[in-house]
Specification:
With 136 residues, the chain is mainly α. It has 8 helices and no strands. It is 69% helix and 0% strand.
Length: 136
């Protein structure tokens, strides 16, 4: 069994230590930049392990600090689902079994969502039924 190199041990230690401050995050990002500037093909195995560990730690920190609140309206939730599925409004209308004008009017707030729309949003887009009912 191979013993770990000092760099590999350092990478493992980095993975186990979470980034807790912005200053530590900036330091890690600078180290990542230095390694990335060397080029992937020019990194040693230990540098690759270190880069991976630092990237995972940075990603974890970013997820904990930079959160995006979920949409608070039906229109916002529909737009999020369109974005996630890379759907155009025309494609979404077809998927939901709605006419394009009806969907457009609902998304712009000119028309209230009806039962058919709410049912399609729940079944076709997977939007939680309680969210839909609480936001009508």
């Amino acid at each position: 069994m191979k013993s770990k190199t000092p760099e590999s041990k350092k990478a493992t230690t980095l993975m186990s230590k979470a980034i807790k401050t912005e200053a530590h995050y900036k330091k890690i990002m600078n180290e990542i930049l230095v390694l990335m500037n060397k080029g992937e093909m020019n990194l040693s195995k230990s540098e690759t392990e270190k880069l991976r560990a630092m990237a995972l730690a940075a990603q974890s920190y970013e997820k904990s600090i930079y959160t995006i609140p979920p949409p608070s309206t039906i229109e916002g939730m529909i737009e999020l689902k369109m974005y996630e599925r890379r759907l155009k409004q025309k494609e979404l209308a077809k998927l939901m079994g709605l006419s394009e004008p009806k969907l457009s009017q609902i998304l712009t707030g000119k028309r209230e969502p009806d039962i058919a729309f709410l049912k399609a949003a729940h079944q076709m887009l997977g939007i939680d039924a309680s969210f839909l009912l609480n936001h009508v």
